[in-house]
């Protein structure tokens, strides 16, 4: 379907308020469902990243001086434009990322909800008045924007991972330079087009596509940039953290996960199957909060495996633009290779296939939704994030055993469990070493709640009232001689 507004698929970058068109060495962006080239974006590098950062520094001063209400009004207008253009934005997202159109539309509205939320929160950045330690003194704490922010985002949520960073940064009075993933830059550029239309002053939000290494080096090394916010792999997150050390930047890192999904004997099994499908198979298993290890208690293990396989068999794999598609293609060949590796490793060590297990007849990067039973802790799938449509089922007997197994990972982002027992819900919820716990639900992300992880899953929280705090510094003012 042609876009209602072709201007949203823009083959250019917004750098310091100027649009730079894709030149000769542009990056081709392909549709993972067909392999067709969708368009080209500029291949920029260090010089443009520097220019964007300098423009961000200059623009930020005036932006921070505006009232919160003035910033809020522009953000609100941006939110409205995103919602008004949701169909086009969803189509662009599906074309470059592959997820089904309905899911893409869901992401656009979810992404927009962060702009809406932070437009509101902009006006609620409160400080403190603290009773003084001496009779003639008063202690006041104010919150000020950190200044220039750099953001690096991944391909799995080409819209929402951006709004979740850009909206709170702008709301707090910061400016921001973004490097989106090269696989999915058009969604990011479309957001910049709409931000400009919403009246966001030039220079506050730049999008720079190109060499991750070159742009990342400038962002992390810059004295002007005071905060780096990154969503992506733990490996790159650690590298960026190291690069940020000499300039002592504030850091927000949303890194990998290895989410456990636990089904206790007393769970509502149908609800657990539904939750598992949402949590494990959303975006074809390509989210950092996707269930990676499904622990099922012995009494319901076989029934759960059967119900899950049966439910999956009814869901269609196909091009995301087709109405009834639930599972699109994987992002690229490397993603398919990892899924195949994990399945082969598990099967080689004694796991059994209940359904799926191989590339889909559609070819390309399409893969069959897969259920494996007899999975144990010795298999690679127990340790590493698969990031694909494979549900490995581990069998357990005792609560303490499953909590220990669930926590036996270097990651700590999302976790899930299903039970009807209130005491168990509290105890297990408290014992899981994760930033987020879904209890009787497989879907936990929302603008109102703090999203983030512990251990190697990262630093900081996004969304919620805490999400804006991350873009502020507190300043202590000591009033004497009173
Ligand atoms: P994924 O496996 O999700 O692609 P990555 O961590 O490789 O995760 O990529 C996430 C984002 O980080 C992308 O925008 C990518 O271009 C960027 N990136 C990758 N390597 C580097 C690097 N060395 N410096 C800065 N950014 C990088």
From TrEMBL:
KW Zinc-finger (keyword) present: no
Gene Ontology MF annotations: glutarate-semialdehyde dehydrogenase (NADP+) activity; succinate-semialdehyde dehydrogenase (NAD+) activity; succinate-semialdehyde dehydrogenase (NADP+) activity
One cellular component (GO) term of this entry: cytosol
EC number: 1.2.1.16, 1.2.1.20, 1.2.1.79
Active site: 254
Xref: InterPro entries: Ald_DH/histidinol_DH, Ald_DH_C, Ald_DH_CS_CYS, Ald_DH_CS_GLU, Ald_DH_N, Aldehyde_DH_dom, Aldehyde_DH_Superfamily, Succ_semiAld_DH
Family: Belongs to the aldehyde dehydrogenase family.
Name by which UniProt lists this protein: Succinate-semialdehyde dehydrogenase/glutarate-semialdehyde dehydrogenase
Species the sequence originates in: Martelella radicis
């Amino acid at each position: 379907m042609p876009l209602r507004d072709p201007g949203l698929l823009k083959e250019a970058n917004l750098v310091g308020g100027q649009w730079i068109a894709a030149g000769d060495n542009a990056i081709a962006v392909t549709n993972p469902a067909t392999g067709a080239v969708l368009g080209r974006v500029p291949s920029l590098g260090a010089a443009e990243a520097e220019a964007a950062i300098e423009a961000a520094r200059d623009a930020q001063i005036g932006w921070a001086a505006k009232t919160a209400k003035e910033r809020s009004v522009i953000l609100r207008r941006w939110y409205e434009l995103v919602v008004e253009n949701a169909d086009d934005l969803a189509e662009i997202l599906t074309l470059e990322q592959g997820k089904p159109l309905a899911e893409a539309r869901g992401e656009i509205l979810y992404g927009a909800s962060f702009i809406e939320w932070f437009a509101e929160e902009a006006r609620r950045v409160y400080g403190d008045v603290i009773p003084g330690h001496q009779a003639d003194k008063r202690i006041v704490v104010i919150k000020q924007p950190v200044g220039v922010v750099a953001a690096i985002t991944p391909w799995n949520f080409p819209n929402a991972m951006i709004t979740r960073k850009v909206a709170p940064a702008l709301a707090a009075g910061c400016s921001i330079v973004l490097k989106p993933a090269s696989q999915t830059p058009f969604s990011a550029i479309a957001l910049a087009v709409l931000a400009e239309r919403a009246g966001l002053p030039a220079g506050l939000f730049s999008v720079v596509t190109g060499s991750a290494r070159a742009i990342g080096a400038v962002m992390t090394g810059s004295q002007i940039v005071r905060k780096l916010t990154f969503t992506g792999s733990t490996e790159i997150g650690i590298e960026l953290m190291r690069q940020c050390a000499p300039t002592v930047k504030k850091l927000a890192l949303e890194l990998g996960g290895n989410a456990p999904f636990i089904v206790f004997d007393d769970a509502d099994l149908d609800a657990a199957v539904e939750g598992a499908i949402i949590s494990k198979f959303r975006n074809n298993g390509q989210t950092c909060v996707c269930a990676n290890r499904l622990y099922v208690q012995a009494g319901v293990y076989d029934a759960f495996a059967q119900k899950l396989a049966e439910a999956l068999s009814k869901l269609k794999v196909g091009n995301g633009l087709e109405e009834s598609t639930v599972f699109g293609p994987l992002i690229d060949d490397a993603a398919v290779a990892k899924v195949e590796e994990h399945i082969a490793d598990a099967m080689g060590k004694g796991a059994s296939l209940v359904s799926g297990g191989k590339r889909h007849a559609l070819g390309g990067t399409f893969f069959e939704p897969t259920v494996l039973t007899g999975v144990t802790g010795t298999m690679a799938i127990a340790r590493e994030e698969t990031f694909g449509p494979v549900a490995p089922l581990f069998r357990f007997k005792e609560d303490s055993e499953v909590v220990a197994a669930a926590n036996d990972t270097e990651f700590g982002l999302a976790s899930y469990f299903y039970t009807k027992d209130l005491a168990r819900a509290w105890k297990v919820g408290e014992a899981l070493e994760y930033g987020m716990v879904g209890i009787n639900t497989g879907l936990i992300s929302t603008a109102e709640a703090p999203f983030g992880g512990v251990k190697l899953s990262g630093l900081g929280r996004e969304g919620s009232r805490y999400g804006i705090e991350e873009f502020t510094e507190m300043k202590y003012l000591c009033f004497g001689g009173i």
